[in-house]
């Protein structure tokens, strides 16, 4: 059996990708460099805007992307390739501790200072603030 046939027959599991000495509580940095985390938010729907309470509710998809050099990638995979993992992996891997700092609850009911002096012709600019719990 050739080496390429052996590689193709390997099923990559969590045990294959995570080394024995992996610590999910340690940030994956190289030589003390800063960790870069890319985020994406796709807003599906602005469910409601509550002027009297100065907040809004939205449905959205939130994505995060980073490199963890400690994982053992398949031999035929390049270092800058992406691996898309479902949420079941989160308990085993280091993940960013991002949170929405101006959210009122986990549904992202977000506070928004509104100026209603020009209502109903007003325009409101609201933000969703994302931060790290441990690194500010």
UniProtKB/TrEMBL annotation:
Key words of the record: Membrane
Highest rank taxon of the organism: Eukaryota
Secreted found in the keyword field: no
Molecular functions per Gene Ontology: extracellular ligand-gated monoatomic ion channel activity
Residue intervals of the Neurotransmitter-gated ion-channel ligand-binding domain: 16-106
GO CC annotations on file: membrane
Compartmental location: Membrane
Predominant subcellular localization, coarse grouping: membrane
Protein name: Neurotransmitter-gated ion-channel ligand-binding domain-containing protein
Source species of the chain: Medioppia subpectinata
